[in-house]
Amino acid sequence: MPTVLDRLRGGGLFARAGRAAGYTAAGFVTAQVLRLAANLVLTRLLFPEAFGLMALVTVVLVGLAMLSDVGLGPAISQHGRGDEADFLDTAWTLQVLRGALLWLLTLALAWPVASLYDAPELAALLPVAGLSLLVNGFLPTRIETAARHLQLGRVTAIDLASQLAGIAVMVTAALAWGSVWALVAGTLAGSAAKLALAVRFLPGRPNRLRWERAAARDLIGFGKWIFLSTALAFLIAQGDKAILGTVLPLGPLGIYNIGYFLASVPSLLGTAVVGRVMIPLYRETPPDAPAASRQRLRRMRAVLTAALMLLVLALAVLGVPLVGWLYDPRYAAAGGVVVAIALVQLPQVIGLSYDQAALAAGDSRGFFGLFASRAAVQLGAFAAGLVLAGLPGALAGQGLAMLAAHGLIVRLARRHCVWDATHDAAFALAGLAGGVVAAWANWPSLAGLATFGGP
Q1: CA 84 to CA 336: how far, in whole Å?
Q2: Any idea what DSSP says for residue 139?
Q3: DSSP code string of 206-238
Q4: Is the dihedral of CA 343, 344, 348, 350 positive or negative?
Q5: Phi first, then psi: what are they for 139, rounded to 5°?
Q6: In angstroms, rounded to a whole number, what is the distance separating the alpha carbons of residues 217 and 30?
Q7: pTM (2 d.p.)
Q8: Residues 367, 358: contact at Cβ < 8 Å?
Q9: What share of the chain is helix, strand, coil (3-state, %, to 5)?
Q10: Residue among 73, 81, 93 nearest 208 (CA)
Q11: How many DSSP H helices and E strands does the chain contain?
Q12: Domain edges within the chain
């Protein structure tokens, strides 16, 4: 342990990356503990239908955010001008314009979405919740600058403080109102708190409205493929809930969303760490880097994959008793959902650390190609499985699609000389063995998903 701590105290690339990964992981775990605690309190103050409505609101808000993402964060992280004031101010101006446009879109979509899901409450919920998108548009680029230089301690603290503010408002409003509006109020409070804290406590110059043509050209040129990639990432991440929302009542949809929240913690943790750390690492460790640096990168990937796989397998084995311990009997069916989704995500964990190599090399087009293929395969398999065999078929189809998509990830990784065959083979065997044990231990709950949401 002293040796590890000594290495993390240095000013070198891997020391900074280790600290950044540690801050991100610790912040993420703390955030999920807070989220879980809030969820446990709120499930006792509100009804499952409230969580179903908020799941639909979240699908729309996340969809709008991801469908309009032009990759300003990755662009600042990898671009040679990522520290220049004109470049950063142009990026911030684009972000402000995007936030305003997104809020206007929530106004336009409110009634059509309410009609699609036969939930009149959405017509009022969406425009109010959409104000969080407007607020987020004013977040300073100092957040991305900190990520570029792997200095994430203060950013992590701000994220946690803003989450606490949102939870406090959410619980207080739930006690006072007892309705889904408490969840919306907490979302707005969290966004406002993050903006205020970032402006006050992150070092650096304030952003100003600025439009430099060269910077805008580079940002848009890089971001057009990120825009398309994140649109597809939305379909991959939220498509299941969007599809299920058309066939499940609000109560079962809320229960599914709780199960999804628990099961997706490891993959979200991995995505957070990879998104914050791997672009700078790949940028500073190109294929022609010294062998010692490439070996350290390889070890870091292996440690990340091992930690995430252990978390996924733990949820796959213990998902049913965990739900029984945390929630009241109304939410018991979420246990089978946790197990199934954890099993489905095992292939995703193995290839999670590869795709950022494309962004580090400026290959946003290759990054888009990967997401386009994954979205088509996974959503098609999910929809086909749902038609053929209900929720179990949909999740099984999604799992098979993730296995197929790994071949596409390997292709991209080989193009950028970062693929590690030994890594993939070892973790594939470990995931297979652990997955068989988890499925055997929880087979009754998995079989019970056949009637999920039915009469």
Answers
A1: 50
A2: -
A3: PP-----HHHHHHHHHHHHHHHHHHHHHHHHHH
A4: positive
A5: -60, 135
A6: 39
A7: 0.66
A8: yes
A9: 80, 0, 20
A10: 93
A11: 20, 0
A12: 2-444
